[in-house]
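anyone seen this seq b4? input:
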Amino acid sequence: MTSTPSVTSTSSAPRLAPLYLAGFTTAFGAHGIAAALGAETEDLGWTLLAFGFTLALYDLAEVLLKPLFGALSDRIGVRPVIVGGLLAFSAFSVVGAVVPGMIGLVIGRLGQGAAASAFSPSSSAAVARLTGASTRGRYFGRYGSWKSLGYALGPLLGAVLIVWGGMPALFWALAVLGLAAAVWVAIAVPRVPVLPRTRVTLVDLGRELLAPGFLVPTLVLAATTGALAVAVGFLPLLGRQAGLGTVGSMAIVTVLAIASSLAQPLIGAAHDRGRLSVRLGTVGGLALIAVGIGISALSGEAVVLVATALLVGLGVGTATPVAFSHLAASTPADRMGRTMGSAELGRELGDAGGPLVAGAVATASVPGVGLGVVAALTAGAGALALLGLRTRTDAAVGE
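predicted toks r here
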């Protein structure tokens, strides 16, 4: 296991707080609009496929750019990339607010996704660099918890803002949030030293990407994010069909996000103390998610949808901090940004692919079948992770 040096201090928690806001911002931006669109979508069939594509639009912009911005943060430092990304996020949010119709929505969402591809992996790299091995899981848990709060507040605040002032009001709120986060990061986050980098060939890069220390946690993160995207988009849709109304259907997503937000710091701390192995945390989390999505495929009753939200939230909250901590512990500090960017690419493929798969299958059949396919794919990812995590990996929980 590769030891990753850190730039820790006695005030690590306050110094990380601006990074938590950056995580909140990208989650709010990604899912505030997505859940609002899901709750307002009435028809199934072809419009469901279009809905899935709309959910994936933000993430498709991130797929190509996250590894590039992650590598850039290794070269120039994480702080300037985070600040620049947040400022760009605000700028494209203004475009979404002032340009009317679908053109503004498309440009705004694509631009927000491209900007998030800069500050999201760089923020993860900063958390890894600014924390020590004995506390990394806890702080990744807190970072993930604030992202989950973005998932929780995004749908509800998004609904309120859209009812009050339409989509422009939501874009204006995101512009202000991104600007505030950029200023706070620039002022409060310490400079992370740029480390000397060794020359990397394409063969070396391929070897890094195929190493179990990278491949397994990235698979777990992709599966959790894909299932989460499906839940955030389709649970409000099914809730509205079940007669819950717009607010009630969005409240289901809030249950999911609060469960994940509460679980992540606790799970991360337990992992740091050696009470939760990498294998149990990742595979167990994926199992909870698969069960949760699976029961919603069988029944659309309101109580089942709430149970799905709870199980998916707990599963995401269990697997995510453990996978990130394991990934950081396996990565040399001089390529932390590139590795986090590549891992985030895997997450975005899941985030974009999950809704597209569910929507495409539902278009050809019914929503329950689409959700069932997602549940099966999540369970399959858990099985692959179980095979990929050797006993020697579990022995490195506390490293």
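Residues 1-5, 8-14, 391-399 have pLDDT under 50 and may be disordered. The CA atoms of residues 23 and 274 lie 26 Å apart. kinda curious what u guys think
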